[in-house]
Design a protein that fits this description.
Elements: H1 2-17, H2 19-43, H3 48-59, H4 62-72, H5 76-94, H6 96-125, E1 137-146, E2 149-153, H7 158-167, E3 171-184, E4 191-198, E5 212-213, E6 229-232, H8 234-241, E7 251-254, E8 257-264, E9 280-283, H9 284-291, E10 305-310, H10 316-337, E11 350-355, H11 366-399, H12 401-409, H13 414-451, H14 464-490, H15 494-500, H16 507-542, E12 553-559, H17 567-582, E13 587-592, E14 602-603, E15 606-607, E16 620-625, H18 629-633, E17 637-640, E18 654-658, H19 659-665, E19 675-678, E20 686-692, E21 706-711, E22 725-730, H20 734-746, E23 754-759, H21 761-803, H22 805-813, H23 818-851, H24 863-889, H25 893-899
Parallel strand pairs: 4-9, 6-8, 16-21, 18-20
Antiparallel strand pairs: 1-2, 1-10, 1-11, 3-4, 3-10, 5-8, 6-9, 7-8, 12-22, 12-23, 13-22, 14-16, 15-19, 17-20, 18-21, 19-20
Length: about 900
C-alpha cells in the first residue's frame, strides 16, 4: 500500500508540475482512439471526412472527456487555484495603482501587528532560549509590609537565597543569578559592560553545551570565596577575541579582580537575560566575595535573584507555600540578629513563585502595559485596513458586475466565481503580508531600541514564531477583508447586470459600504482620542518641576579596579575631581553627591523630638554636598540658607531640608530652627538652617521625596565617598563636551581606576519612557488610521458621485445650483463621518477606564480632547470628500443624460 501511495503522489505531483506534458499526452491518446474509430468507418466505405465526423460523434464531447479525465487525477482543486492565481495576477498587473493601494494598506496593517507581536512575544510569551521545560521554571519574589506599604522584591541577599535553597523541598533544581554592570577589560580597553553572576546550578536549567571549553563546576562556586573563573558570551568572544580558541586560560579583568577564561557559551545563550545581553558569566560566590567578604552571612545586601524548577506534580500554589515556609525560617535568622525587625506574621511576609517573564510577574513595569495597549491599537489599525480594503474591493466588484455576469452566463457556478474572487483577495493579502514583513523588519529596529537591548532582540525575518504569526494573520486578513466582497460578487443577477452594466447597484450594497466607512471612522477616532490623552499626559509630565535642572547637568562617577584607597584618600580624590572639573572651559559649577536621581541613594534612621516614629512617614533620603551643591543642581533655597564654607566637621551640625520633609515632620510650624538626630538618640542635634524646594528623586509621578542636605564634612560616619560621584554643570557642551570632561577627569584618578560621565538626561528620560512611547505610537497609529479612513471615505464618495451621474445631471437640468450639489455630496460625507464619530466616542468612553492607569494628571474623559479629536476627524472627512464633491458640481447635464 505504501508503494501505491508514493506512486499516486508522484502522479499527482507530475499532473501539477508537468501539466502541459499530460495535456499533450491526453490529446495524443484521444487522437489515437478517434483515428482507430475512423478507420472502422473507412473500412465500411465511408468517405474520410465523414468517417472522422462519425468517429468524433461516437466519442461524444471531447472537452467533457478531457474534464472527466482531469477529474480522475485528483488535482482539480489545485489546478483551479493555480488557474485563478494566474488570472488574478494578470488582473493585479492590469491595475497597478489599485493594486498598490490595496497591498500598501494591508501591508501596514499586517506589518505593525507582526512587529508588535515580536515585542509581546518577547515580553510575555517566550521563555529564555534553551530553557528546559519552561512551564515548570519560575522566578521567586519576596513580599512584606513595611510602614503600611506592600513591598515586593525579586532581588535579595545571598544568605536569604541559601536559606530558601536549604529549607525548600518541592523543587528539583534551584539557581541564583544577578546581572550587574562592571568594568570589563584592561587599560584603554576597559568599558562598563553587563556581567552575569550565576550559581553553578544555573546552567543546569538550560539545554546548552559550551562552544569552547566548559562551564564552571560546583566546587568552583562554594561560598564564601568561589573561584575567579569566567565563561564568555559568544558575541563578546567574537567581537573582543575574534573567535580565537586561544582565549582559554587567558585572564580577563572584571571589576577589581582577574578571572581565568574557562569556556565560551553557545550562540544566542543569554541566560535569563531580562531583555539585556551579558558579556560574561562568573560564579556568584566569586563575584560576592570581590564586593564584600561578609556577603554570604549578612542580610543587608540585596543583589541576587532566584530560579526554581518545580518537581513533577507540584502546583505553583504548593510551590509558593513551600517557599513561604522556607522564608519564615530564614526570617528567624534575621530576627535573631536584630530586635528592630517585626515578626514574620506582623510583616505579613511570604515568598511567591511567578512566571519567569518579568512582564508577567508582580513587578511588571509600565512598558509591558504600554506594549499591551500598543497591540490593541495595532489590531484596530488592522481592522481599519481590512474595512478599507473591503470597501475598495466592493467598489471594484461593482465595476466588474458585467464581467462576473458573463462568467456566470457561460456556466460558471456561484461557488466557482466566489472561489476565484477569494483567490484574488488571497493574492492581495499574500503581497500585503510580504510588504508587511518588510515594514515589520524596519519597525522592529525602532521597537528594539525602545523595549530591548538591540543586541539581544530577534530580527523579524529571522524569527520563526513571528513568521508563523504573520502567515496566520495574512490568511485571517484575507478572510476578514475579502469575504464580503467575494460573497457579494458571487450573487450577481445575470439578467440585470447584462442589461444595465454596472449602473444598477442595489441600495443594500451602498449601505454595506457606508457601514464599513463608519467602522473606519469610529476606530480612527478611538486612536485619535488615545493619542490626545497620551500627548496631554506627556505634556503634564514634562511640566512637573523636578526641583533641579536636567539639561546642563552631567553625572560623573569614578570606579576603582584595584583595592580602593582609604577614606582620607577618597575624600582628597573627590576634591581633586571637583577642582579639575572647574578648570575645564564651559564648566560653571561642580559638587560631590551621594544621592542621584532615579539611581537610588542613602538613608539613615532619624529621630525627631516629639515624634514616636519617623520611619512610618516614609523614606528620608540623605544628600551630602559642598557649598556649591544648590548652585550646581539649580535647586532653590526657599527660606533660610544653603551650605556655607564655614560648615565644617567641628562646626555645629546643620541641615537643609526639602519643603515636603518640613511639612511631614513639623506640620503647621516653620521648619527652620527645628532639631533632629541622625542614626541614634545619642547623636548631636542637627539644626535646620534652610528649606529647599521639593525634588523628585525616585519617581516623577509620585509625591516629592523627603530629602535633607548635609555639608559633606558633617556626613555621619565621616566617609560618604566609597564610590566618588559628582554633578557637573556645563554650558551647552553636548556629547563632545561630556567626553572631553571624562577624559580630563580620567587623568586625575589613580592607577587602573576609570571615570564614567553621562548627561543627567539619560537617567531622567527612562522614567518618562512609557508616556513617550504611548504618545508617539498613538500619534503614529492615529495618523495612519486617519489616512486609511480618508481613503475609504474618498472611495465611497467618489464612487457614489460616479454612480449618481445621471441623478446629478437631472438635478442640474432642473435648476440645482453648484452649491446645492456641493451641499448634497458633502452632506453625505458629514453624515457618515458624524455617525462614526459618535460610535467611536462612545466606545472610547467605555474603554477609558482601562486607560486610566497609563495616564498622568489627565482625565480619560476630558471633553476638550474628545472635541478636538472629533473636529480633526470631521476636517479630514471634508478634505477627503472635497475632490469628489467638486467633480460632482462639474457634471454636464447634457453629457450625463446622453450617456444613458
Amino acid at each position: 500500500m505504501l508503494s501505491d501511495f508514493w506512486s499516486d503522489l508522484r502522479y499527482r505531483m507530475r499532473a501539477i508540475l508537468r501539466r502541459n506534458v499530460l495535456e499533450h499526452d491526453l490529446d495524443e491518446e484521444l487522437r489515437f482512439h478517434i483515428d482507430r474509430e475512423a478507420e472502422k468507418y473507412l473500412a465500411q466505405g465511408a468517405a474520410p471526412a465523414a468517417a472522422l465526423r462519425r468517429a468524433r460523434s461516437a466519442f461524444g464531447g471531447l472537452d467533457q472527456i478531457k474534464e472527466d479525465t482531469r477529474a480522475t487525477r485528483g488535482t482539480r482543486v489545485l489546478e483551479n487555484l493555480l488557474q485563478d492565481a494566474r488570472y488574478a495576477w494578470r488582473g493585479l498587473r492590469a491595475r497597478p495603482t489599485f493594486t498598490m493601494v490595496v497591498v500598501t494598506t494591508l501591508g501596514l496593517g499586517i506589518g505593525v501587528n507582526a512587529a508588535l507581536f515580536g515585542v509581546l512575544d518577547r515580553l510575555l510569551l517566550r521563555a529564555p532560549a534553551f530553557l528546559i521545560d519552561a512551564r515548570s521554571v519560575q522566578r521567586v519574589y519576596l513580599e512584606r509590609t513595611a510602614n503600611s506599604r506592600r513591598i515586593i522584591e525579586r532581588q535579595f541577599e545571598y544568605a536569604t537565597y541559601a536559606d530558601l535553597v536549604r529549607w525548600s523541598t518541592m523543587f528539583s533544581a534551584t539557581a541564583g543569578f544577578a546581572y550587574r554592570y562592571e568594568a570589563v577589560g584592561s587599560d584603554v580597553d576597559v568599558e562598563e559592560r553587563l556581567v552575569a553572576a550565576v550559581t553553578s546550578s544555573f546552567f543546569d536549567f538550560f539545554s546548552v553545551r559550551p562552544t569552547l571549553g566548559r562551564f564552571f563546576l560546583r566546587q568552583e562556586d562554594v561560598a564564601p570565596l568561589g573561584s575567579p573563573v569566567v565563561v564568555l558570551a559568544h558575541s563578546y568572544w567574537q567581537s573582543r577575541y575574534g573567535g580565537s580558541p586561544d582565549v582559554l586560560d587567558s585572564l580577563l579583568r572584571i571589576g577589581g579582580g582577574a578571572y581565568r577564561v574557562i569556556g565560551v557559551a553557545p550562540r544566542r545563550f543569554e541566560g535569563v537575560n531580562d531583555l539585556r545581553s551579558p558579556v560574561a558569566f562568573v560564579p556568584a560566590t566569586a563575584y560576592g566575595a570581590a564586593r564584600d567578604s561578609t556577603y554570604a552571612t549578612r542580610y543587608n545586601w540585596s543583589w541576587l535573584q532566584m530560579l526554581v524548577r518545580r518537581r513533577a506534580g507540584v502546583t505553583p500554589e504548593a510551590a509558593t507555600a513551600d517557599l513561604t515556609n522556607a522564608y519564615r525560617q530564614s526570617w528567624r535568622q534575621l530576627e535573631s540578629g536584630s530586635s528592630e525587625y517585626p515578626s514574620f506574621e506582623e510583616a505579613r511576609a511570604r515568598a511567591t513563585a511567578h512566571p519567569i517573564q518579568l512582564a508577567r510577574g508582580p513587578q511588571a513595569g509600565p512598558d509591558s502595559r504600554v506594549a499591551r495597549w500598543m497591540s490593541g491599537m495595532a489590531l484596530i489599525v488592522l481592522v481599519i485596513a481590512c474595512a478599507n480594503v473591503a470597501n475598495l474591493l466592493l467598489v471594484r466588484s461593482l465595476g466588474r458586475r458585467r464581467e462576473l455576469a458573463l462568467r456566470s452566463a457561460l456556466g460558471g457556478s456561484r461557488a466557482r466565481i466566489t472561489q476565484q474572487l477569494l483567490t484574488e483577495i488571497l493574492l492581495f493579502a499574500v503581497l500585503g503580508g510580504a510588504a508587511g514583513l518588510a515594514a515589520a523588519q524596519w519597525a522592529g529596529v525602532a521597537l528594539r531600541g525602545v523595549f530591548f537591548d538591540a543586541n539581544s532582540a530577534t530580527h523579524v525575518l529571522g524569527d520563526g514564531r513571528t513568521l508563523i504569526f504573520a502567515t496566520v494573520l495574512t490568511l485571517a486578513t484575507a478572510l476578514l477583508a475579502g469575504l464580503a466582497p467575494a460573497l457579494d460578487g458571487g450573487r450577481v443577477d445575470v439578467g440585470d447586470s447584462l442589461r444595465a452594466g454596472a449602473r444598477n447597484v442595489a441600495y443594500g450594497r451602498s449601505r454595506m459600504r457606508s457601514a464599513l466607512v463608519v467602522t473606519q471612522v469610529a476606530l480612527s477616532i478611538v486612536l485619535l482620542i488615545g493619542a490626545a490623552l497620551f500627548v496631554s499626559s506627556l505634556r503634564q509630565l514634562r511640566s512637573v518641576p523636578l526641583g533641579y535642572d536636567v539639561e546642563p547637568l552631567v553625572y560623573v562617577r569614578a570606579r576603582f579596579r584595584d583595592a580602593p584607597p582609604d577614606a582620607i584618600q577618597r575624600a582628597q580624590l573627590v576634591d581633586r575631581l571637583v577642582e579639575a572639573a572647574l578648570s575645564i572651559p564651559g564648566v560653571t559649577h561642580a559638587t560631590p553627591t551621594i544621592t542621584v536621581p532615579f539611581q537610588g541613594g542613602e538613608s539613615q534612621r532619624l529621630h525627631v523630638p516629639g515624634l514616636d516614629s519617623v520611619n512610618h512617614l516614609g523614606r528620608f533620603a540623605l544628600q551630602a554636598g559642598s557649598p556649591d551643591y544648590f548652585a550646581t543642581l539649580g535647586t532653590r533655597i526657599v527660606r533660610g540658607r544653603g551650605i556655607l564654607p564655614t560648615d565644617r566637621a567641628n562646626s555645629p551640625p546643620v541641615a537643609i531640608v526639602s519643603e515636603a520633609m518640613a511639612r511631614a515632620l513639623w506640620p503647621g510650624r516653620d521648619g527652620i530652627g527645628q532639631c533632629f538626630r541622625i542614626r541614634d538618640l545619642s547623636a548631636p542635634c542637627t539644626t535646620v538652617v534652610g528649606i529647599a524646594e521639593d525634588v523628585h528623586m525616585q519617581s516623577i509621578t509620585g509625591a516629592p521625596d523627603f530629602i535633607y542636605y548635609l555639608p559633606k564634612e558633617q556626613y555621619p560616619g565621616g566617609d560618604p565617598w566609597r564610590y566618588p560621584e559628582l554633578f557637573v554643570r556645563m554650558n551647552g557642551a553636548g556629547v563632545a563636551g561630556v567626553e572631553m570632561l571624562r577624559q580630563r577627569l580620567q587623568n586625575v584618578v589613580p592607577g587602573s581606576s576609570y571615570v564614567l560621565a553621562e548627561p543627567l538626561e539619560r537617567l531622567v528620560d527612562p522614567t518618562m519612557r512609557p508616556w513617550q512611547i504611548g504618545a508617539t505610537i498613538f500619534v503614529v497609529f492615529g495618523a495612519l488610521a486617519l489616512v486609511l479612513a480618508a481613503i475609504g471615505l474618498y472611495a465611497v464618495i467618489a464612487f457614489g458621485v460616479a454612480q449618481r451621474t445621471r441623478e446629478l445631471g437631472v438635478r442640474s437640468a432642473l435648476g440645482a445650483s453648484k452649491r446645492d450639489v456641493l451641499r448634497l455630496v458633502l452632506g453625505e460625507s458629514i453624515r457618515v463621518t458624524a455617525a462614526g464619530a459618535v460610535a467611536g466616542t462612545a466606545f472610547a468612553l467605555i474603554a477609558s477606564r482601562w486607560l486610566t492607569p497609563l495616564l498622568f494628571n489627565v482625565s480619560p474623559r476630558d471633553p476638550g480632547l474628545y472635541v478636538l479629536a472629533t473636529l480633526l476627524l470631521l476636517w479630514v472627512g471634508l478634505l477627503a470628500s472635497a475632490l469628489p464633491a467638486v467633480r460632482a458640481t462639474r457634471v454636464d447635464p447634457n453629457i450625463a443624460l446622453r450617456a444613458e
